[in-house]
Write a structure and sequence with these properties.
By secondary structure, the protein is an all-beta fold. It is built from one helix and 24 strands. The protein starts with 5 loop residues before the first strand and ends in a 28-residue tail after the last strand. This is 5-deoxy-glucuronate isomerase.
Amino acid sequence: MTTTHHLRAGSAGDGTYTVNVSPASAGWGYSSLRVLELPPAGRHSFATGDSEWIVLPLAGSCTVTAGGDVFRLRGRASVFDGVTDFAYAPRDAEVSIASPDGGRFALTGARCERRLPARYGPASSVPVELRGTGTCSRQVNNFGAAGVFACDRLIAVEVITPGGNWSSFPPHKHDEHRPGQESQLEEVYYYEFAAHAGTPGLGYQRVSPSGRGGTDVLAEVRDGDVVLIPDGWHGPSMAVPGHDMYYLNVMAGPDRAWLIHDHPDHAWIRGTWPEQPVDPRLPRYTAPAK
């Protein structure tokens, strides 16, 4: 069932994009996500408007033209096959994406004030982090993290969770502006799953209210699904056994800082991590050498 905050695959598209989440459609101020599928020799153009964008190949390669800058993205076969390079396009620009062989591309965006230069992000520069241990082990590709790649408002990362593990755990929130302790960030989760013997994968996402009338989601998520998190404790994100889970996180808010507050009932779990090894299935892959 599609709800206000859980958008089933196919329910959030508009004919051009298979996913098109904007501040207007989500009812918030900053964060956007579009997923574009291009056929062989396909091309798509768009105006960035009042937002900055990162073009991220999910499957396939492409050439991105932003104003007078041209970036050739090698991409990857799938989100489970490697770190990808990417391109940053500033606000108030015209962008074109062309793919000789076709593919699927994420456009992660955020409303912003500053107009930064268009840039290429090499795969070799993406920090690959192993977060958590034991059954909380997951891999984070910090391509657009604060402090890693310069943006005005946009924060974007990829997370791979091995089948049977929990990520986004302990549950945490970032829905209040508390300087030095917590930042206020809207967040989009976009999911893909590794199939097994032709059987599609699935997982589960929990978001619980952090205040009266807050976001409350318990969703079975599958390929192409989206969960919108304007507020609330989010986590766990659970990958069913046998199917690795990928999700793309897009975040933005008044300040570009990822400061989170763990749920007080579950924060203790972090203290157990030093006692356990990281899941030996990780890293799924590492960034290529320069």
